[in-house]
Write a structure and sequence with these properties.
- The chain is mostly helical and 286 residues long.
- Helix content is 55%, strand content 3%.
- It has a two-stranded antiparallel sheet with strand order 1-2.
- α4 (92-109) crosses α5, α4 (92-109) crosses α8 (192-213) and α5 runs parallel beside α9 (220-236).
Length: 286
C-alpha cells in the first residue's frame, strides 16, 4: 500500500533480512551450576511465514492492540475450563518468558509437523511461533531497554530464570523428553515463571489431545501460539529507539549478549514512532 511505501522511505539504513534468537531452555549445552556460560544466540533469516503472519495480524488489529487483550484473546484455550496464568503475570517480560518456555516445551513434544492434510498450516504456525518466541527471548536477554518494563529488572529476571532452568535441567543429566522436562520444570524449579511456562505447555498439549479425541485435524496449539506471538510483536512495536531495534534484529549483532551494564539514560526520547515504520525495519515487508 501507499502508506507502507511511504513509511519504508523513512528508513535510511540498509538492513539484512535477519533476526537474532536465543532460548532459556538450551538443553544441549553443559549445565553444570559452577560454569556460567555467555548467552548463546544465533542469527537466522526471517522466514516468509513470520512476515505474513505479522502483516495479517497488523491488518486485522487496525493498530489497536493492548497486552492484556492480546494475551487473553490468543491464549484462550477453547474447550478448556482451566484458567490461564494472567492473574500472576502483570509485566510484559513475565508474559514473554512464560510463553517462550511453553513454546520451547512444545518444540520438544511436537518436534515435527503432523503428516495430515493440515500439516502445511501446522508447519507454518510452528515456524511463526518458534522464531518470534526466540526473538522475544533475545530481546529480554540482550536488549531489555526495548521492552516496556524497566530494563534492569527485565535483565535480572532473565538471569534468575535462566539460572534456575539450568539448575533444574542439570538434575536430569540429559536432554529430557516432554514428560520429564515438564516434571523437572514443575517440581524442580523455584521460579514461578518456569513453573507457569510448564503449566501453560501442559494446557496446550491437552488442547491438542482434545482435538485428537474429537478427530479434528491439525495442531491447534501451534495456531494458538502463532496468534499470540504475532500479537505480542505488534504490542512491542511502538518504540522510541529504531536504531537499537535494528541492531537487535540484524546480523550486525555479535551473536552473543554483552555482559556490560547498559549506558546511562540520555535525554527524554522523542514521541513514539508508528508500528508500520518499526515493523518494516524489523521484518522488511516490502
Amino acid at each position: 500500500s501507499l502508506l507502507l511505501r511511504c513509511s519504508c522511505k523513512l528508513v535510511n539504513n540498509p538492513w539484512k533480512d535477519n533476526i537474532n534468537l536465543c532460548s532459556i531452555l538450551d538443553m544441549h549445552r553443559p549445565t553444570a551450576k559452577w560454569s556460567p556460560l555467555p548467552e548463546k544466540t544465533k542469527i537466522v533469516k526471517v522466514p516468509d511465514q513470520v512476515k505474513s503472519a505479522i502483516v495479517a495480524k497488523l491488518r486485522s488489529s487496525k493498530g489497536s492492540l493492548q497486552l492484556t487483550k492480546a494475551c487473553t484473546a490468543s491464549l484462550h484455550l477453547q474447550g478448556s475450563d482451566s484458567q490461564l496464568l494472567w492473574e500472576d503475570v502483570t509485566a510484559t517480560t513475565d508474559v514473554l518468558l512464560v510463553c517462550h518456555i511453553a513454546t520451547t516445551i512444545l518444540e520438544v513434544k511436537y518436534p515435527n509437523p503432523s503428516t495430515t492434510a493440515s500439516s502445511s498450516s501446522d508447519s507454518s504456525n510452528r515456524v511463526v511461533a518458534t522464531h518470534l518466541s526466540g526473538y522475544c527471548a533475545y530481546l529480554v536477554a540482550c536488549c531489555p531497554e526495548l521492552l516496556p518494563d524497566d530494563d534492569g529488572w527485565s535483565k535480572d529476571l532473565y538471569k534468575a530464570v535462566k539460572a534456575d532452568a539450568r539448575r533444574a535441567l542439570a538434575a536430569g543429566r540429559a536432554p529430557p523428553e516432554y514428560e520429564k522436562l515438564v516434571r523437572l520444570l514443575s517440581a524442580g524449579c523455584r521460579h514461578k515463571v518456569l513453573r507457569n511456562g510448564a503449566q501453560l505447555a501442559e494446557q496446550l498439549v491437552a488442547l491438542v489431545q482434545n482435538q485428537q479425541e474429537e478427530e479434528e485435524e491439525g495442531n491447534k496449539a501451534w495456531g494458538v501460539l502463532a496468534e499470540f506471538w504475532s500479537e505480542i510483536i505488534l504490542y512491542l512495536a511502538p518504540s522510541d529507539n529504531l536504531d537499537a531495534h535494528a541492531a537487535a534484529s540484524s546480523s550486525r549483532c555479535s551473536g552473543r549478549c554483552s555482559t556490560t551494564p547498559a549506558s546511562s539514560p540520555g535525554p527524554p526520547p522523542p514521541p513514539p514512532t508508528t508500528r508500520l515504520r518499526l515493523l518494516h525495519l524489523l521484518f522488511k515487508f516490502i
